[in-house]
Each structure stands twice: as C-alpha cells, then as structure tokens.
Design goal:
Largest sheet: 4 strands, parallel
Distance between the termini: 80 Å
Strand content: 5-15%
Strand order of the largest sheet: 2-1-3-4
Helix content: 25-40%
Radius of gyration: 22 Å
Order of helices and strands: EHEHEHEHHH
Length: 171
C-alpha cells in the first residue's frame, strides 16, 4: 500500500479563530485595592485564554491611549474592564474600541468599586466576590455578537398616544 489517505469525506473547514478577549483591572486611582486583593485577582492563571493587564486610571486620557495600544498590540477584539461603574465610563471604553476598529458593543464593565470595594467586608470574601463578578462578565462577553450599524428610515408622521396618569394608577 502507498502512503495515500483512504478515500472519504473532505476535511471539515477549520474553526474560525476565537475572538481574543482582554481583561483589564483598573485601580481607579486610590479607590480600588484597599480591600480587594487585586494582585491575587490579576494572576493570569485564574483567567485561562484571556489577556490580563492592569492600569492605575484607565479612564484618563493616558489610560485610554494605553488601552488602544494594548488592544492593537495583543489583537484583542473584546475587553472586560474591572473598575468603576459602567454608568460613569462604559461610553468611554466603547469609544476606545470603536476608535480601534472594534465593535463598540464588546466592552463589558465590572463595577468592583461600588459593588464590592465600597461595601466593605472581609478581604478574602470581597476578593472572591470580585472573582465571581469578573468570571460572569467574561462569560457574558462570549455571548456578545457584533451589531452592524445601519441607517433606518423614520417618519415624522407618527403619534404615540398614552394615558400616562392611568398607567401610573395601574402600576
């Protein structure tokens, strides 16, 4: 017999490359790391398959420039930012991703400052709570899909009628 492979179905196409994900811990200046053991959380062994980094103040102009370079250098498509409130800076990090040609819908914020650090408690327990929150954000980010931007025709001839007072009474 020769070394030729046996006849059979063609080889399956290769799996698409997974979206590379980054995890960035921000210290929010002096606001994170008093109770949460950030050094323990930042250990890459806790986050297999994820690029882990940290920055002192990621929302600053210097921090945003660093994040842009980090995304480009590591080929990251998605990023979890473990820091402050998404209400405060989610738009900031969306803009950074969009400026780098990534989907602005692929950052995921973990509010370690208000939801963990400022609540207080035992350092071990708050660090474990932080780990669970970050793990959940990474899992959620895996499910994100790109949303293509598109223009939609709208009509100015629409009337929305509501009996707002009645709705409040019902509620």
């Amino acid at each position: 017999m020769t070394g030729s492979p046996p006849p059979g179905p063609a080889a399956a196409p290769p799996e698409p490359a997974p979206n590379r994900t980054g995890l960035v811990f921000c210290r929010c200046g002096p606001n994170l790391g008093t109770l949460i053991q950030l050094g323990a959380l930042e250990e890459p062994r806790h986050w297999p398959g994820v690029e882990v980094a940290s920055h002192a103040v990621l929302c600053s102009a210097e921090g945003q420039a660093w994040l842009q370079r980090h995304l480009e250098a590591r080929g990251l498509e998605r990023v979890v930012v473990a820091a402050c409130s998404p209400k405060e800076h989610e738009q900031t990090f969306r803009a950074v991703l969009e400026a780098e040609g990534r989907s602005p819908f692929h950052p995921q914020m973990v509010n370690l400052r208000e939801q963990v650090e400022w609540i207080g408690g035992d350092a071990g327990q708050v660090t474990e709570k932080s780990r669970r929150l970050v793990r959940a954000a990474l899992r959620r980010l895996e499910l994100h899909r790109a949303i293509p931007a598109e223009d939609v025709e709208v009509s100015a001839d629409v009337l929305v009628a509501s009996n707002f007072a009645r709705a409040i009474d019902t509620a």
